[in-house]
Amino acid sequence: MDLDLEDDEDIARIVRETRVIAMVGLSPNEQRPSWGVARYLQAQGYRVIPVNPGHAGSTILGEGVYGHLAEIPSEAGVQMVDIFRRPEAVGTIVDEALAHLPDLKVVWMQLGVRDEAAAGRARARGMTVIQDRCPKIEFPRHLHGS
Fold it and tell me: Tens digit of pLDDT for each residue in 49-78?
């Protein structure tokens, strides 16, 4: 099956089934792409939990910021991790997500971010993995009518 078509089917399912997203690397700066993506997702009804060690304890877009994925209470029900970090940071983030987020179903890496080894580990644990894509670009095609 064509990878893009497969990704498209996965993305349509993610749009329908996901409600809580932990965004690693979410910036409080409104000029940063991560802030714009988080704001868009919130406007579509998703809960976006910010993860950024430099801003832990503060608030971004009305949500308390966690320093690490492991600090998010399991009751939060995080189903997707959206990674706004450099590719070299992805492996550690994915391993932490797999170890500490019991409801996790999706690992999403933003545009320009790929880590095949981390993606393989996540898939081996039953996760859907999307790499080098942005939900703000992908979700609108599936939000209405899918």
Answer: 999 999 999 999 999 999 999 999 999 999
Query: CA 145 to CA 74: how far, in whole Å?
Result: 31
Tally the domains of the chain: 1
Interatomic CA distance for residues 113 and 130, integer angstroms = 10
Q: How far apart are CA 130 and CA 123, in angstroms?
A: 10
User: Does residue 107 belong to any structural domain of this protein?
Assistant: yes
pTM: 0.94
Task: Choose between 46 and 7: higher pLDDT.
Answer: 46
Question: How would DSSP label each residue in 63-84?
Answer: EEPBSSGGGS-GGG---EEEE-
Determine, yes or no, domain membership for 19. yes
Domain of 32, in residue numbers = 3-140
CATH number for the domain harbouring residue 38: 3.40.50.720
Question: Which of 103, 92, 142 has the alpha carbon at shortest distance from 125?
Answer: 103
